[in-house]
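Supplementary Methods, section 5.1.

A reviewer requested that the exact input to the structure prediction be made available. We therefore reproduce it here, unchanged from the version used in the analyses.
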Amino acid sequence: MDEIAEIVRAIGRQQGQNDLVVETSNQLLCLYHASNPFVSSDETESADDIAIKLRNTTQELLDKIQKAESDWENFCLD
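The structure derived from this sequence is encoded token-by-token as follows.
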């Protein structure tokens, strides 16, 4: 019975933490929008989206570097 009570308390603590995370996230979004009044919520990007774009851009740059090096080697061999 004590184990069940401890599990219920742990669930309650976790729910309280989850609620705090949601509240803090909402407050941060409000602050962000207050400091950027011309940006709609549709225009904001998630960290995942930004990371994916950064990865893709980095890969494109690496591909361009590789092609440039290859072109340079071919130019020097001719």
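The longest helix spans residues 2-35. These observations are discussed further in the main text.
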